[in-house]
């Protein structure tokens, strides 16, 4: 593989390149944003996207249409809050708010995560970007009393926000296709 210099950001070019890429490449890229194959297929099927807003609208529509199984697929791609996946730059970047948390707070977050996972059968999903460990723990506690249906709808909203951030980052960074 040749090491090419990274091109300057070109949001319109990145969108066009993604929209025109072979289906397998589009799906692979989309699965890096969200690990639900159902989501990736739905977003890819909305090609070509006229602009960023159209791609973000495809994300919103795809998230709204996810089945419970698809939601579980999406959550399976996310690290437990307080435990970013080592070497996963998205996970580490998105959970940057836990870096300065003390061990007592992280222990509390770990216990709350375990209780949530025992109740709902999946990780606690929250858009962690810009949040501290304290605010994530407070949100976890606030959502714990939800029933499964209410929590699934909350997860849809959080997943849409996470995907929007990741899509925008993909479009704003130097082209991944170079």
TrEMBL record:
- Keyword Lyase listed? The answer is yes
**Pathway stated in the Swiss-Prot or TrEMBL entry:** Purine metabolism; urate degradation; (S)-allantoin from urate: step 3/3
Identify the keywords attached in UniProt to this record, alphabetized.
Decarboxylase, Lyase, Purine metabolism
Could you name the domain of life of the organism this protein comes from? Bacteria
Q: Which Gene3D superfamilies match?
A: Oxo-4-hydroxy-4-carboxy-5-ureidoimidazoline decarboxylase
**Reaction equations catalysed:** 5-hydroxy-2-oxo-4-ureido-2,5-dihydro-1H-imidazole-5-carboxylate + H(+) = (S)-allantoin + CO2
What's the top EC group for this one? lyase
Provide the Oxo-4-hydroxy-4-carboxy-5-ureidoimidazoline decarboxylase domain boundaries.
21-168
PANTHER family xref list: 2-OXO-4-HYDROXY-4-CARBOXY-5-UREIDOIMIDAZOLINE DECARBOXYLASE-RELATED (PTHR43466:SF1)
Can you say what this protein is called?
2-oxo-4-hydroxy-4-carboxy-5-ureidoimidazoline decarboxylase
The organism of origin for this protein: Kitasatospora cystarginea
Gene of origin? uraD
């Amino acid at each position: 593989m040749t090491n090419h210099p990274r091109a300057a950001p070109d949001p319109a070019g990145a969108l066009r390149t993604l929209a025109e890429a072979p289906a397998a490449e589009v799906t692979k890229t989309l699965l890096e944003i969200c690990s639900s194959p159902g989501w990736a297929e739905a977003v890819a099927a909305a090609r070509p996207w006229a602009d960023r807003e159209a791609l973000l609208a495809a994300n919103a529509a795809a998230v709204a249409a996810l089945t419970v199984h698809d939601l579980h697929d999406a959550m399976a791609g996310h690290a437990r809050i307080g435990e970013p996946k080592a070497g996963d730059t998205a996970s580490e970047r998105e959970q940057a708010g836990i870096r300065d948390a003390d061990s007592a707070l992280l222990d509390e977050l770990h216990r709350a995560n375990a209780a949530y996972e025992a109740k709902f059968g999946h990780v606690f999903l929250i858009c962690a970007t810009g949040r501290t460990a304290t605010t994530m723990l407070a949100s976890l506690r606030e959502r714990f009393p939800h029933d499964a249906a209410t929590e699934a709808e909350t997860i849809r909203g959080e997943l849409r926000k996470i995907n929007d951030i990741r899509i925008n980052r993909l479009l704003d960074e130097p082209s991944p296709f170079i």
